[in-house]
């Protein structure tokens, strides 16, 4: 019994041999500094390029050298003889004496379009006063209706007719179409054509159709609308990209003219002053 106890004690007291296998340590590989710098450079270039392409490039036309006087407005497109503006109550009170001074510049304002109505019940607060002043100060004047796709086009036409009394020398009435109101293309075309027909019957002249280049090609790309004088809204480009015929070009919404404190839309007419006068109501 004693011998067994002694052997057991010796076995317990014998130290265990350590394993000859070593635990491998995993090294964390770090990216070389030169590679990190290259990746950071590429990211910065990609971000800068994207920012310029989507946020700067579309508006670069604002900063190009102007062909006319800087105080007259943003850059004026080259080689157009007849210039004009369009206004509404958003421009506030207009100093017509100052505005007429533009006639002494290299880019005199010849015509002014004014917002008259919207939908079937909304009149622009400044229309009557501005319309009278435009005639008084010798500008060729015009009136436009802002189209509401969800409202009966006949009611809209009747409201415009009741609100706007055009005279000899005034430009044809204008339909401003900027929204489809979630209508189908077919429904929108029918509604727009209905308004144009009603107004043409009353005034005896084809109305002017105003809309942007993209909107027309997307929603009103139909030969039936090509017979109307087209007033195209196409900003921050050197020239009109639309391949069809156009009569007026609204080339910026950030113009500045004497007598108007707020930004104003600037336009050109695609023709001579005599051509513009020939477009006006003759009787």
CATH class: Alpha Beta
What is the global morphology? globular
Largest sheet: 8 strands, mixed, barrel
Helix content: 25-40%
The CATH superfamily turns out to be: Glycosidases
Structure write-up:
By secondary structure, the chain is an alpha/beta fold. The protein has a single domain, classed as Glycosidases (TIM Barrel, Alpha-Beta Barrel). 33% of the residues lie in helices and 18% in strands. The protein is built from eight helices and nine strands. Helix 3 links the parallel strand 1 and strand 2. It is globular and about 90 Å long. The N terminus is likely disordered.
Give the helix/strand layout.
Elements (H helix, E strand, L loop, with lengths): L1 H12 L19 H24 L25 E6 L8 H4 L9 E10 L3 E2 L3 H10 L3 E7 L6 H11 L10 E3 L8 H19 L4 E5 H7 L10 E4 L14 E8 L8 E6 L3 H7 L4
Can I get a quick summary?
The protein has 283 residues and is of the alpha/beta class.
Labels describing this entry:
TIM Barrel; disordered N terminus; 283 residues; 33% helix; alpha/beta; 8 helices
